[in-house]
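Question (not urgent): is this output format expected?
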Amino acid sequence: MSGTAGQVIRCKAAVAWEAGKPLLMEEVEVAPPQAMEVRVKILFTALCHTDVYFWEAKGQTPLFPRIFGHEAGGIVESVGTGVTDLKPGDHVLPVFTGECKECRHCKSEESNMCDLLRINTDRGVMLNDGKSRFTIKGQSIYHFVGTSTFSEYTVVHVGCLAKINPAAPLDKVCILSCGISTGLGATLNVAKPKKGSTVAIFGLGAVGLAVSLFPNTRLVSDFEIQNVDADAKPVRLVSVSQAAEGARLSGASRIIGVDLNSNKFNEAKKFGVTEFVNPKDHKKPVQEVIAEMTNGGVDRSVECTGSINAMISAFECVHDGWGVAVLVGVPNKDDSFKTHPVNFLNERTLKGTFFGNYKPRSDLPAVVEKYMNKELELEKFITHEVPFSEINKAFDYMLNGESLRCIIRMGA
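Got this back:
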């Protein structure tokens, strides 16, 4: 065990005290892990749009003060009682959703929706005792989705940690713990385009571009949320990039990117996107435009925006008889999906996915090995890097639409 095992650790954390206000660098006390918990030293973390969404607290119940962050890589410092498959020194990726390996979902080959550890954005405490492991001068600081990686040390349930190859560079593979894997999995595990097929990707962000990576491979989501209103800032290049990357590696012959921001199109070419459609450039619904371009519709579509209109268009643009649409983006809670039932009777299929249907502990290590074997490129998703002391710059980059992923170096 490490020399700090069982002791309170004092370290730096970027704390959000109020909605939308810059994070403040504070000294926090991080309590030892309790039963089935692990304390992790975070070495690298990244900013995901989900962090920004809940930091802004628009449309949710505000929960502050809070330590955000959920895309990261680190090393196990100590473990609580009952933890048997991790030990100090192991390299891990914290994940916002978990895998207890005991519930019906975890035992099913068809689901990754763990009953115990499924994401809960409203819970700011640990499951074990309903308390936070973070304090500042006696004041509790809320956790975020069970990870809180904007701290040099954090405490995570063992079921939300994927043990990975220690040779994998954490400053690269850390981005696999959320958006990149969501887009890849949406393509590889759910849409499953065949070689030579046509694929439409709605929303040219990181998740979407990852979809284009692997259109013909089976590996053993991202709960990111994107505003795609006409005046919205382009904050979501990572998801779509993953979707596009998956489609490219699958051997898709045409990958059609759909986005309201035409400035994203040149960047998307790097991920295999072959054609582009901006709905604002057409007087008819974009699903009709795509149907005309593809002789009746695409074989597969992946929606990565969270816009209910984009979801409907993604479904209605697939070909009858065999077309499959996959929803990745998270809509507003009051949205309703409306389409004519005949679209289903004409044998179009609509699917949803959560974290790309990956089981975090079982499947993420294999995704990391894809990178290690040079089958998966991650460097092109990383557009910026900042020291931990300048974490607010990462927020600026994302809010200004300048970054796909910004790596934050802890201890700097």
